[in-house]
Specification:
Layout lengths: L2 E6 L2 H15 L4 E5 L10 H11 L5 E5 L3 H13 L5 E3 L4 H12 L6 H10 L7
Parallel strand pairs: 1-2, 1-3, 3-4
Helix pairs in contact: 1-4, 2-3, 4-5
Length: 128
């Protein structure tokens, strides 16, 4: 089953997004990664890489990041696991994209490309 790593500058935000997505995503594996090593706001490539490795079960890992340096650090982490783990970054809003990805990933035969596509569909969602 495709796994999801949620990357936010805030550890609590990443955990909250995971919690919301798990309500809809059922059995999907969603791992939150957030905050800097001192417990403050930020992200690090090694922590994201560790999250990708922990989440991976061989079916692929989708990474969804909030902004700026989180995306840059996610790119570094994905490059670090290249050749070992199939991982990619979604260009999607973090909450809505994670929710869509979780619902898709809960399907037993979902591929990483399908989960990525569902996450990125969230860019088009309107609230009104």
């Amino acid at each position: 089953m495709v796994s999801i790593v949620v990357v936010s500058h805030s550890k609590r935000a990443a955990e909250g997004i995971r919690d919301v997505a798990q309500e809809m995503g059922g059995d999907a594996t969603i791992l939150p990664v957030g905050g800097d090593p001192d417990g403050g706001i930020g992200t690090t490539a090694p922590a994201i890489e560790e999250g990708i490795r922990e989440a991976s079960d061989g079916s692929g890992v989708l990474v969804i990041a909030d902004l700026g340096s989180a995306v840059m650090n996610a790119e570094i982490a994905v490059e670090a696991v290249e050749g070992e783990i199939e991982a990619t970054i979604a260009d999607a809003p973090i909450l809505e994209g994670t929710l869509n990805a979780a619902v898709s990933a809960a399907q037993p035969d979902a591929s990483l490309s399908e989960v990525l596509e569902r996450a990125e569909e969230a860019r088009e969602l309107r609230k009104l």
